[in-house]
User: What shape does this take?
Amino acid sequence: MTAVLASPGDAAAITGGQPATIQDAPYEVALIDLITHGFSDCAGVLISPTAAIFPAHCMADKDVTSIGILSGTADLAGAGPGAMLSGASSIAINPGFDPGSLKNDIALVKLRGSASAPSAKLPVDPSIPESLVMTGWGAGGIGEPVSESLKKADFLLLPNLTCDLELGKSLPAGALCFSSVTAANCDGDSGDPLSNSGTVYGFSIGVGFCEKGRDGFGTKIFPYLDWIKSLA
Assistant: This one.
């Protein structure tokens, strides 16, 4: 499927983010609305040529015939020799997903056909490095549009208790906490992969704080590996 998409306009995506190339996260994909041909404010991670994982809240109201998965490019307009827009054949939302608490916020989408972009390396044990890199197309600040081009930023893994205190409630099961004094996740950053040395340990839930220094949280991948493997 040819990637011909509406341009969202440019911004400093991920609040405090810096320019990135697809080589920084070759497995990253964007969720595309095939009706509007626009970005659906969610990224994902290609885990095989025929499957990608996303936050479940990105898929809760989606029809499988209306979504596309854009891979192989840092450009939301679909530019670049490796860009490919694939349709979806199925959506599986984790059976434990709770939209209120965002517990078990993970879904798996099967692609129609095979993506040519490389798949992500997933963790082999529950340990997560302290330093993580987030890549994505989210907004550079409150009220700003998402970015046309991929951005990246460095974050530190924090104890979940730190996010509990920030949010005033306990993080949901399967979640991780992160922060940066120079960056923040923002609107459109749901599903942004959190990686270190080529391994993707989790993804942002993108709660839209958009303020540098504020804690963000996301979904760990390791607790869901058996579920992922059963579907992919």
